[in-house]
Amino acid sequence: MNNVNITFLGGSGTVTGSKYLVRHNGKSLLIDCGLFQGYKQLRLRNWQPLPVTPRQIDAVVLTHAHLDHSGYLPLLARDGYTHAIHCTPGTRDLCTILLPDSGHLQEEDAAFLNRHQLSSHSPALPLYTRLDALHCLQQFQIHAFHKAFEPLPGWRMTFSPAGHILGAASVLLEVGGRRILFSGDLGRPDDLLMNPPDAPPQADTVLIESTYGDREHPPEGLLDELGPALQRLAARGGIAVVPVFAVGRAQVVLHAIGLLKAQGVVPASLKVFLDSPMAVSTTGLFQHHMQEHRLSGREVQALEHGATMVQTPEQSKGLAKLHGPMVILSASGMATGGRVLHHLALHAGDHRNMIILTGHQAPGTRGARLAEGEKTIRIHGQDVAVRAEVVRLSSASAHADGNQLIAWLRSMGHAPDQVYVVHGEMGAADLLRQRIEHELRWRAAVPEHGSTCTA
Q1: How far is Cα 306 from Cα 274, in angstroms, rounded to an integer?
Q2: DSSP characters over 55-77
Q3: Alpha-carbon gap, residue 98 to 66, rounded angstroms
Q4: What is the pLDDT of residues 198-237, one digit of tens each?
Q5: Full-prediction pTM beyond 0.85?
Q6: C-alpha dihedral (152, 155, 156, 158), degrees to nearest 10
Q7: In what order do the strands lie in the sheet with 452-454?
Q8: Half-sphere exposure at residue 295, Cβ-oriented, CA atoms within 13 angstroms
């Protein structure tokens, strides 16, 4: 087989589960190894075997650490994948935080189902464990940005900065006489925290993400949106519960609150708590990757001291005894699990309080239901009334919007042979496909899940 083939095992028609299997001359390389999240029928895919066995995969390369790109790795390694997992230093550092936590949550979820006999399986099992995650971390190999390496003999790869989060990369693969570019998740050129993505290198085939391919970010920035919301909260003495992604979103919201306090927009006395051990650990990484973000050393220190860092479950429970005004940032960002659920259950029912949604809410998640204005949400088997004000921040996203994605592609100069639009809900992916065809006059397609194409 002399062709270079790509099989779309995830991240096609949905924003989760990114997995792209590249095959050439009997060798197989997996770009990204993500978990499916959101709708139950998507999450069930995590339990289905891949069309290749883990032992048939010769190398894995990660674009970045978010679980929809890395969260399947512990399962892959447990089921027989023994080779290297290639990534940037920032991605390795974040996976060291994210993957064991994911395994721990899988174990907790299974234990909860068994305790309350809520599973059709007896016993309910975790997808993988914390120990599985710790084992797979031993297979990580790091590579600097802009420095080519060979994950397999004759397969040349180069990481370039993609913005988005620490360590995030676009990946250029050169194999079989073809240049294939995987955008990874692209950050915004105007991000408050992260540097802009590098311009893309020339390529024959491009896989471009489309999370926000169907929209434009609002002209007002995060400070313009968050400032008035926190002013209202402080004036009525309420408590804001802010579901945040522990990696990236927690830090940008903390930085924004710090700037608003410094500008006198919100009271300097407004109490802020970061209730996520994973987010606390991630915040500490910014000082180790200074070249990837916009913050000065002083601003990194301000980030680390801008909130009370909540580590233990006891400290988290202690927040229930405190009165507003205050802000609690807690994971998970789509309110699918974690400590934020306890805060929502406690505070969603009071009209003085506020729920601030900080980014993309995948269909089927609690966050999406809150965004849609539902008046009750189910938490831990109980229906919880939602009387708190729900605020959606449309400017907090760490993803490039449709215009920024088109501008990134246009900066390539020469048209690739083919663009595949991936990592987006169907509407977003198809609208970006249309724009690429009409505005750039390039060939573009939205691949089907499980389909294979020639690169």
Answers
A1: 9
A2: GG--EEE-S--SHHHHTTHHHHH
A3: 8
A4: 999 999 999 999 999 999 998 889 999 999 999 999 999 9
A5: yes
A6: -70
A7: 140-142, 85-87, 59-61, 27-31, 19-24, 5-10, 452-454
A8: 27
